[in-house]
């Protein structure tokens, strides 16, 4: 997801000069397709494999922290809004939540219509 990007600390360890143009993660050099793919797969995996929900949560936390580090931002609540991964993950949660209740409302409406038909037949 972040192939060539490095933090300042990683550059020091690798004995490289830190260059923001090369190493800093920005919205312009983030691959949105890969980000979308990663978010959807982690979310789907979390839904399908509930035993690993804590692991998936830790994975998401780690990816958000790594993204913030690559953006050269401190890991604090104020900077969380800068995380594209977090934003996409929240959007995926909202869409799933909306779809769940949309389906439930449709099921409830269908059941109510069936009850009305039964009452009409009985009369």
- Outline type: elongated
Strand content: under 5%
**Which runs of at least 5 residues are low in confidence (pLDDT < 50)?**
none
The largest pleated sheet is described as:
none
Mean pLDDT: 84
Global structural class: mainly alpha
Q: What do these coordinates show?
A:
The structure is a single chain. Helix 3 packs antiparallel against helix 4 and helix 3 (32-48) packs across helix 5 (84-122). The protein starts with 7 loop residues before the first helix and ends with a helix. 68% of the residues lie in helices and 0% in strands. The radius of gyration is 22 Å and the shape is elongated. The mean pLDDT is 84. By secondary structure, it is mostly helical. The protein has one domain (8-122).
Q: Which characteristics define this entry?
A:
123 residues, mainly alpha, 0% strand
Topology:
Layout: H1 8-13, H2 20-23, H3 32-48, H4 53-70, H5 84-122
Nutshell version of this structure?
The protein has 123 residues and is an all-alpha fold.
